[in-house]
């Protein structure tokens, strides 16, 4: 059985949760998944080994990662259930080939670009799993514009870094506060311990930077101070919101 890192396990578990929530969908009795930017191919291998995916496409824009993924697929004897495919984002995915698509390990802006260019398959995907490594606020706004709805989120810490994993489906989404886009509507309401830790760390970082820059009478410092105070205000908005949630 393949072993996953803490981050990859969180992604796999979110995919499993999505499958379980949508298992009544007749299209998804035998789940077909696609992993975009698959790298080593470990998550498709895990889901197929667990008999949660009947078939998987492991896709990457680079030949090197695909070659490594091919070695791992062959090592576990899964050549008949996992197909390796060279693809720039969703370009190589055909309509109807996958019920669930995972896109992880990239910046939010790049992931939005992939989604916009993948318009030919978007209407055929019942569930998406995303884990953007940056620009999360931008990414959530972009999902809203594309007619996609986040219905669950988790956070995991690994080696001092915090990763957010999202489950998304077609639908309407709109948040009333900017801090919900920046930090996650569902994370704020679920209040997992790792998220509280992350928010506390952010508040300390922003507060320390504000104190450091205050008193520097330069245009650059004033601009940076305005940005930091805005970020600090968003974090405090998260704190207040979590206190209001039972």
Shape: elongated
Please count the beta strands (DSSP E, at least 2 residues each): 7
For this structure, what is the CATH class of the largest domain? Alpha Beta
| Poorly predicted spans | none
CATH third-level topology of the largest domain: Rossmann fold
| Number of separate helices | 10
Helix/sheet category: alpha/beta
Tell me what the CATH architecture of the largest domain is: 3-Layer(aba) Sandwich
SSE pattern:
HEHEHEEHHEHEEHHHH
Oligomer: single chain
Q: Please, how many domains?
A: 2
Task: Order the strands across the largest sheet as they lie in space.
Answer: 3-2-1-4-5-7-6
Average pLDDT metric: 93
How big is the Rg? 20 Å
Main pleated sheet: 7 strands, mixed
CATH superfamily of the largest domain, by name, is Vaccinia Virus protein VP39
| Range of strand content | 15-25%
Question: What's the end-to-end separation, in Å?
Answer: 40 Å
Kindly state the percentage of residues in helix: 40-55%
Give a short overview:
With about 250 residues, the protein is of the alpha/beta class. It has helices at about 5-20, 40-50, 65-75, 110-115, 120, 135-145, 180-185, 185-190, 195-215, 220-245; strands at about 30-35, 55-60, 80-85, 100-105, 125-130, 150-160, 160-170. It folds into 2 domains: about 5-175, Rossmann fold (3-Layer(aba) Sandwich); about 195-245.
Describe this protein's structure.
The structure is a single chain. This protein has a seven-stranded mixed sheet with strand order 3-2-1-4-5-7-6, sandwiched between helices. It is built from ten helices and seven strands. α3 links the parallel β2 (55-60) and β3 (82-86). By secondary structure, the chain is an alpha/beta fold. The protein starts with 5 loop residues before the first helix and ends with a helix. The radius of gyration is 20 Å and the shape is elongated. It folds into two domains: 6-174, Vaccinia Virus protein VP39 (Rossmann fold, 3-Layer(aba) Sandwich); 193-244.
């Amino acid at each position: 059985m393949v072993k996953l890192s803490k981050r990859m396990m969180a992604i796999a578990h979110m995919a499993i949760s999505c499958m379980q929530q949508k298992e009544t969908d007749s299209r998804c009795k035998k789940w077909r998944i696609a992993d975009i930017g698959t790298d080593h191919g470990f998550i498709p291998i895990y889901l197929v080994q667990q008999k949660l995916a009947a078939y998987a496409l492991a896709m990457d824009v680079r030949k090197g990662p695909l070659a490594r993924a091919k070695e791992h697929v062959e090592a576990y004897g899964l050549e008949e259930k996992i197909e390796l495919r060279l693809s720039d984002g969703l370009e190589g995915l055909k309509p109807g080939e996958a019920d669930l698509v995972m896109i992880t390990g990239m910046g939010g802006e790049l992931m939005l670009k992939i989604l916009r260019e993948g318009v030919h398959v978007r209407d055929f995907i019942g569930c998406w799993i995303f884990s953007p490594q940056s620009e999360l606020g931008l990414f959530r706004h972009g999902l809203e514009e594309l007619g996609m709805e986040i219905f669950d989120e988790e956070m995991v810490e690994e080696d001092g870094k915090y990763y957010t994993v999202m489950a998304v489906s077609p639908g309407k989404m709109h948040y009333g506060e900017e801090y919900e886009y920046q930090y996650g509507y569902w994370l704020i309401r679920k209040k997992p311990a790792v998220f509280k830790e992350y928010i506390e760390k952010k508040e300390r970082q922003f507060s320390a930077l504000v104190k450091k820059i205050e008193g520097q009478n330069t245009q650059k410092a004033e601009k940076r101070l305005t940005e930091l105070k805005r970020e600090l205000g968003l974090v405090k908005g998260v704190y207040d919101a979590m206190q209001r949630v039972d």
